[in-house]
Amino acid sequence: MLLRFILVIFLLFSFHFKGKAQHSFLSVQDALNLAINNNPELNRMAEQVRILEAMPGPAWGIESPELYYLREGMDGNMFMEQRWGISQSLTFPLTGFYQNRKARKDISAAEMRYQFERVSVRTQVKKAYTELAYAIKNMELTEIEVQLANNLLEIAQARLDVGESTGLDLVQSEIRLNQAKNDLRNAVQMKNSARNSLMRIIGIHSENQVYEIIFTDTLAYVDTGIDRHLILQRIEISPELNYVRLNSESAKADVQVSKSRYLPDLRIDYYRQNFGNSYDFNGFEVGVSIPLWFTVNERNRVKQANAIYRQAEWQEAGVLLSIKEQAENAFHRYQTSREIILSHREFIQEKSEYLLELTQEGYRMGELDLLRVLEAQRTYLEGQQLYYQVLRNYYLDIIELEQFLPQELVFTQ
Fold first, then answer.
1. How far apart are CA 79 and CA 72, in angstroms?
2. Whole-structure pTM value
3. Number of other CB atoms surrounding residue 139 within 10 Å
4. Under CATH, domain 2-404 is a member of which superfamily?
5. What is the number of H-type helices and E-type strands within the chain?
6. Residues near 48 by Cβ (< 8 Å), separated by ≥ 6?
7. 166, containing H or E segment
């Protein structure tokens, strides 16, 4: 814990103290390293593994020996007996074997649960960073919107000054500029919310955050060429499905443990006994527990263990269906986003920029009215916003599909 705390503090201070004239930088890989060391749920899973690693030994059912002393005749009678001895209780060896095996399966399940949680944290961090990168880009687009509104206001003022337009165009331009500034305020708030969400997933409290961080990774289109058949094949070895399978095996092992409870527990005593002169006699006792009330205890435990095992099997079937649905939906969303992105890059982006440039020049020259310019601005900005929305969704779907692929595809550097 101390080493982890020192590492987190070092990373945070390294972000902050890079020079007064410099900003700190946080890439996706930096965020992942922080999350692995500082995410509460992931670290809780790691401690759970350590807890279970201590269980196989006690699972053998070897209790601590009991040392005892007995004395009779303390009321003054002639007959006196005293004894000291040591008693050892043991679980039946086969029961101990089954308990030990179940404990080891619990460890395997917990280790796989940790691996699944690690993949989940990686997915959460990348998705949160994607949302933040999109929010930053959206803010930049809104700043462009403000700049375009400012330019339009200057043109309207210039035309009014030379008598080429009425004050109505100027009022409309002022309203448009005010709306753009409000949009910018909302975009800044959206960026701050996305930033706080990323910091929460990393595990950094608000009082420890450094606000001069520059987030270096951005959204850029990369054609990944994901194979659907490979995804469906690798679903069977995904950490989540392996975890529920190991959990099912643990439940099955618990059925054997419950059935072995019909076997008797053992107790062995060794003692030295004195009938009045000295400890002249040695002896031993052997006892077994008899499951006389098995209809109340053991039989119901077996029923319960069988029900838990069947429940785990149904959970496995449900998780498999859920993962397949999740993978199919993510893949089809990925394909749709990819097609929209290609369409925008090949046609819409260039045409909308050209349209905006022509309409602004036409309004400046008095050939077009203000409404045509506003419509062109709206077309351009909506096209850019749609592009980055789809690019964000494209990244989110790839990140979700990474769970079923042998390597990471985005934010790998």
1. 8
2. 0.76
3. 19
4. Outer membrane efflux proteins (OEP) (1.20.1600.10)
5. 10, 6
6. 110, 113, 114
7. none
